Amino acid sequence: QSSVELYGLLDVGVEYVNHAGDDGGSLARVISGGKNTSRWGIRGSEDLGGGLKAVYNLEGGILMDTGAADGALFKRQAYVGLDGKYGRLVIGRSFTTTYDLVIKFDPLGFAPNYSWATTGGATGPSKYGMTTSFDNMVKYTGKSGGFTYGASIGLGERAGNANEGRKIALGGSWFGKGLGLMAACEQVNGTTVAPAIRRDRTNVCHLASDYTTGDWRYTAGMRAYKLRHGAAATADLRGNTYWGGITRVIDDVTLTGAVYHIDTRNLPAGQDADPTMFVARAMLALSKRTTLYVSAAHAKADEGQLVGLSRDDAGTGTTQSGITAGIQHRF
Amino acid sequence: QSSVELYGLLDVGVEYVNHAGDDGGSLARVISGGKNTSRWGIRGSEDLGGGLKAVYNLEGGILMDTGAADGALFKRQAYVGLDGKYGRLVIGRSFTTTYDLVIKFDPLGFAPNYSWATTGGATGPSKYGMTTSFDNMVKYTGKSGGFTYGASIGLGERAGNANEGRKIALGGSWFGKGLGLMAACEQVNGTTVAPAIRRDRTNVCHLASDYTTGDWRYTAGMRAYKLRHGAAATADLRGNTYWGGITRVIDDVTLTGAVYHIDTRNLPAGQDADPTMFVARAMLALSKRTTLYVSAAHAKADEGQLVGLSRDDAGTGTTQSGITAGIQHRF
Amino acid sequence: QSSVELYGLLDVGVEYVNHAGDDGGSLARVISGGKNTSRWGIRGSEDLGGGLKAVYNLEGGILMDTGAADGALFKRQAYVGLDGKYGRLVIGRSFTTTYDLVIKFDPLGFAPNYSWATTGGATGPSKYGMTTSFDNMVKYTGKSGGFTYGASIGLGERAGNANEGRKIALGGSWFGKGLGLMAACEQVNGTTVAPAIRRDRTNVCHLASDYTTGDWRYTAGMRAYKLRHGAAATADLRGNTYWGGITRVIDDVTLTGAVYHIDTRNLPAGQDADPTMFVARAMLALSKRTTLYVSAAHAKADEGQLVGLSRDDAGTGTTQSGITAGIQHRF
Predict the structure, then answer these.
(1) C-beta of residue B130 within 8 angstroms of C-beta of residue B101
(2) Which of C44, C48, C79 sits opposite B12 (nearest CB)?
(3) Is the Cβ of A42 closer than 8 Å to some Cβ of chain B?
(4) CA nearest B160 in A: which residue?
(5) Antiparallel, parallel or unpaired: β B237-250 and A87-95
(6) Which residues on B lie below 8 Å from C153 (Cβ)?
(7) Does residue B24 carry a pLDDT above 90?
(8) Would an 8 Å CB–CB cutoff place A142 in contact with chain B?
(9) CB distance from B195 to chain C under 8 Å?
(10) Which of A55, C236, C256, C260 is 20 to 30 Å from the Cα of B68, by its Cα?
(11) What percent of chain C is modeled with pLDDT above 70?
(12) Interchain pair A329, B54: CB under 8 A
């Protein structure tokens, strides 16, 4: 028994943002993936007997406003592996253990319009983010009752030094009785920077909880981010991201409110941006596969620093407000 | 109820053209998409009840001679939208209203081998063409009896100025009693060119008619093209394209003859190319999905100007003749 | 009657190689396509009656360690054609006649980990290889009893000179009573190099045989490679590749041992690398579609020349050893 599924998620909308240009001008644009990144893919499994399955997935992102691929052809997923009673082991390119765990604890589910749960929109020295995917990955995921746990390694593939460029993520979550708890950490090794004798290295850890009761859901999470520079005399770069949100389901409508805040640290006087973003979203399910949504957000930074709603586009003002109306279809 | 369809159109052939090099040499080559651009895609719809459907399409072009993508992955189509009794509204990347309307009034259906209904093969200052697709598009299409009408907008996405880079197309057609009529216009705003105080802008309008009686079909169309330069002292660039064709169906064979002519205008003395192309094509349907075809064409330009049969390749002589034998399969 | 099939072959593993860096360091890496190149594609056929079919195939390679396309989107296959009692004729991009014939006579089936049947891993002046694919291809394949024969041409597409850049391959094989025999040659014309009056040209011929009896299979093959330089005073570049292998099937396990050797010729004193690679592989079929495998190889070069196991990566030592453990799934 085996299966092949051609699937996708197409999400388009129109966004209006202010403070979008250097002169403070506003902007209307067609956006792709406001609620979830637009994608297409092929996936399936084969029953090998004894509870063992071969599993595979190819998945690429799509920029629906131009029709272009969002990065490499199958940059989101390109793996094969085995899934059985001892867990699931896949090799190739895939999301990190961190990504898999944190997404369940973001009230906006990593929505580009608008969430900072993966990376912030600050245009200071860092986005204080996590690593969503590894190349050269071996990933293990296990389950036991309400527990899900796992580890990912992305090989550095540098001759003579297995630590150089190596990436590791691990963590776990527990769900039961409406409550969810999660912890996830990662360490990303960079490259030794001459004349330094050590490599730069990023350490990122998350803690989060989630509680659902009736039509209401309450979510809170945090990330501690630290970049140790390879250059010995350079101070660590640190930032803590905090978020919280409330979601209410009323028949086919889902309402979400959330706040994201980054406590930027160790910055010189006058640059401590400490950006905050407030988000509200209403979704109307036309069917299980088709959803209309409206998202609105406002971001602000302290000390006259620049900030943007987007995780990708640099901010050009000390505040930015935006609203997106979109449609999403899954096939 | 929802559906996913994986589909494509693969069109390959061998073309022989003379006057293909600077030394006048001829050329045999494998071509992709002689009759219709080779493509593959994913499309489908979901019934949302009350006559409303969610619709989507991802489609990319293929260069069958090398296996490469013809531009971005889903450059031909990447949209999601709704279709119902009030019409069809889609967002993303798609063909313009102009493209959708004009293609029904080209006797060769935009065939790269050989039609100038989208753009000409002149190698003067312009191809005097229309815009086939918009990025950042919102497109509406309505129907009422024999009438089809619509409008497309491609957002310019420049902060502070919604007119900069904005593209608009609109038009309609009517079919009834064997007769078809069409009008379609577009305006494409460029960018303000310093030190000019206005932006360059292209205005293009089409008129066409089509008449089918028994096995015969008669088609005639025209396009008026005007480019207003952003530099104030520069004269407008103008060209009118005219075409006409006759098609006869004899069982599984379809014969088509057509002429395309561009009246290039406002050009300096000795550069008024006024190119003309004569085309003949025979198609044999092996099935509903598989077709063999032979196309032949001859193009010429006045005043010793260069001309080419192709809309893409620059001409290298004052005349060019070519013949293509191809096969097309749809799946 | 027509069909559309979405299919793929996903092959990932982890490889350990020594002598992988300039300092002799070793390397662990995730590899894609150890046993067969990872790929995905769309293929099908339509019955046109009278034994005639329309056939088509689109196929692209995948680098599973990063999710990137391995070259152009459908670089492996992009063709349409007809298949009937007089043979099969396809146009577009596809594998050469040489590739189609030789692959059946490589005990490792062109496995990147590890076979030199397509090209060698020498890092001298050449890889002494064959041409796996042609752009601008017209390919004919015929069958008669145990005979398979064919010819491919890749048009050079240079105006005024049909010989410039033209590629030709032809050959045949016979299988019967457990025995297989094959001969295949190709000629690849380059471009005339000024001030030379002739173009460079590669001529490559193969001979091979294969014998299967019970669970055992014995394979031997060779390739004679000659590059005639366009520059008249430059000596031809020559190299003969020889290989042999034994395969044994024991229930779900397939064991293969093979040796590849390149007799590099016409090289200056002290550069005659004459590289050799020894390979052993064990495969375990978990199902018809899913296979686990372990491959190991050792390559060495004479005269202190560099050599690598890989056909793609340059060697950095005079020997290299490697071992790969992988999983392959076909869908």
Answers:
(1) no
(2) C79
(3) no
(4) A25
(5) unpaired
(6) none
(7) no
(8) no
(9) no
(10) A55
(11) 98
(12) yes
Cα A157 from Cα A80, distance rounded (Å): 20
Q: How close is the nearest chain A Cα to the Cα of C300, in Å?
A: 19
Residue of chain C minimizing CA distance to B41: C42
CATH superfamily of C89-330: Porin (2.40.160.10)
Q: What fold, for A5-330?
A: Porin (2.40.160)
pLDDT band at B74 (very low <50, low <70, confident <90, very high): very high
| Closest CB from A60, A82, A157 relative to C29 | A157
Size of interface A-C (CB pairs under 8 A): 129
Residues of chain A found within 8 Å of residue C316, distances taken between Cβ atoms = 159
In this structure, what DSSP letter does residue B317 have?
Answer: B
Helix/strand/coil for A112? coil
For residue B239, what are the CA distances in angstroms to A70, B109, C15? 38, 21, 62
Report residue C87's pLDDT band, with 50, 70 and 90 as the boundaries: very high
What is the ipTM score, two decimals?
0.95
Q: Where do the structural domains in chain B lie, given as residue ranges?
A: 5-330
In degrees and rounded to multiples of 5, residue B105 shows phi and psi of -115, 20
Summarised one tens digit per residue, pLDDT across range C190-214 is 987 666 677 899 999 999 999 999 9
Exposed/middle/buried for A249, CB within 10 Å: 0-12, 13-18, 19+?
middle
pLDDT at A331: 97
Cross-chain Cβ contact A23/B159 below 8 Å: yes
Sequence-ordered list of residues with C-beta below 8 angstroms from that of B322, at least 6 positions apart, any chain: B15, B16, B17, B18, B113, B114, B296, B297, B309
**Which tokens belong to C68?**
């990137």
3-state helix, strand, coil in chain C (%, to 5): 5, 60, 40
